[in-house]
Amino acid sequence: MQNLFWFSSLWFILFISGLISWPATLILFGNLSDRGYSLSKIIGALFVGYLSFIFSTVKILPLNSIYLWFLPVIWGFVNLYIYLRYKPIKEFPLKQVLISEIIFITLYGFWTFIKAHTPEIYGIERFMDFGFIQLLGNSRFSPLEDIWMSGLHLNYYYFGHFVSYLLIFFSRVPSEVGFFLVGAALFGLIGSCVFRLAFDIFNYISRDSKTYLSYLAGFLSLYFVLFSGIFQTPFDLISGKDFFYADAARAIPGTITEPPLYSFMEADLHAHVWGLVIGTVVMFSIFNTWSNQETREPTVLFLGYAIGLAVMTNTWDSVTLGFLTGVVLMFLIFKDNLSFSRFILYFSIIIMVSFLISYPWLFFFESPTASISFVKIRSDLWQWFSFWGHFVLIYIIYFTIFIKNIRLVLKKELILVAIVLAAFILIGLTELIYVKDILDGGEWTRANTVFKVTSQTWLWLGFSSGPAIILSICGVKNNIGKIVTAIILLMFFLLTIFYPIKAINQVYLKGRELANLNSGLNWIQERYPDDYRAYEFLRNIRDDLPIDHKKKVILEAEGESYNDTSIFSTFLGWPTVAGWNIHEWTWRGDYNLIGTRGMEVREIYMGDSLEVTKALVKKYNIEFIVVGSVERNRYDQYLNEYKISKIAEEVFRSEGTSIYYIK
Q1: CA-to-CA distance for 464 and 199, rounded, in angstroms?
Q2: Which one of 111, 114, 473, 612 is most buried, by most CB atoms within 10 A?
Q3: What is the mean pLDDT of each run of 10 residues along the chain (663 residues)?
Q4: Cα separation, 651 vs 449, whole angstroms
Q5: pTM of the model
Q6: Phi and psi at residue 150, in whole multiples of 5°?
Q7: Cα atoms found within 13 Å of the Cα of residue 25, Cβ hemisphere only
């Protein structure tokens, strides 16, 4: 029952967000079949999130203040004015609104149910993502302090975490519960929006078709975006290879290739998952720009706003989404005889607005990437096909029929051509060039480039698949041809369904039972019981602190990323001197910064000099020092706890774990 209560709390906040944001959404997206209802939840969350970000950046409205409630109230009054002034709802689309809400609740509930079998905040990027959210709860203003490099600004795109924190704040659920519920909600939001967009694009292209075909197109797109696996899985099973869910993320050696389902299983609230949300908003805007000339100019401004949010959410996406937008605008030259000067004007406005929107974040951000270089080792054709093959075959069939019937095809259908073309151009470019980062020169040289491009292009190709499949079948003139085409396309569907069934079962269901969503930290209690008691001690101190002083600097062992270090800083939301070093190296592009701090942390724990230790403690304003399981294992017999006791008071002890407070 407790899980259901928390589930309902977040659903209610999103429902209200969508309801109060609907009038503003209608102004641009009122031509959609549900009059923009499916999109309004996202619009509301992003708009309130951006207002909060701006007000906290200019030091007007604290992040952990009850006054945050003023923002949704103000947004609600703005929408009330829009509704009373413009009366944007001419006819209430009850059926389509109910369908959108049912799809959202079903997907949200399904993914909550799946996650409730393994609600552990452990593994991959969960330390980082949860740490950001905890840090937001302790922070007064933006920009955020780096949780794993105290005293410096967090040099990472964290707007998605920012909105996640606000949803948790407003829904009043515990943060470890909200961490999984917000991820499940994103699953539902993306799915319901992809369904609606595919439904409407198919209707827009083929108005004479029967309604059930529109629904089929919508559900197919939903499947290919959120659930579809890859060809590699059935082929591996046929060859006798043991199934391992993570193989899909490494289908092409030396790269990271995550289907969205894998991301939702492992990445939860990571930047590229929130990037899918922004990508969905951009695709709605692109469709509106394409189909509705009356609102084209305002939609162009909104595209600039959405891509500006992409800069702050997952910076790479601003490039890929900007490229997609440019390709679609170029195709408008053929569809509506858009002048080249108008194309340049639109694209310039989008760039300018996106820069202005993201500037409050860009002002503090230093890009760690260096330059672009040429790929030396390209993908093996078969391995590449094992990942992208189902999309390739779907679009070969689609374009074959499209070209065959090109004289009969309306210009409206060019929007699918533009989206698919943009996706495959970007995928092709990853075989030619890559952006240099800390992985340059090794086996994983272009891994990050492929990863970021794959995340967005899968969304575009998956969304386009539903309309493309149904249009392909409808485009065949004779019944036998329709049946053959449908059977072939059905095979592609069946070959990709192995992965979601086996992966979800392997990761979450097999041998597991439903658990409370607030058991995300139980693994610490089981693995490090004394450390967990120390965490509870410090958490109680944090919760009793005045709202202006929730954030303290804590010292704990430095260490490699993806290890059990930085537990206290992560789960308390208190910055530490040096945390996960590979992450910091990635964020800043310079290992010396985190490397130097790592040596200073080791000096405090292992060095003999009392004066040097005092100077370092003062330098980093350290208030609490942890000597726990991780520290004892890492520093072993070299740990100089006696020295630490000379400069700090032991305020907690449980067996081998101590907490020292700086005198």
Answers
A1: 11
A2: 111
A3: 90 95 92 93 96 94 88 93 80 89 97 93 92 94 94 95 96 95 97 96 82 93 96 88 91 92 93 96 95 90 97 95 95 86 93 96 86 88 94 92 67 89 96 87 87 95 95 87 88 91 93 87 94 96 90 93 93 96 91 94 94 95 95 92 93 94 89
A4: 47
A5: 0.95
A6: -55, 145
A7: 25
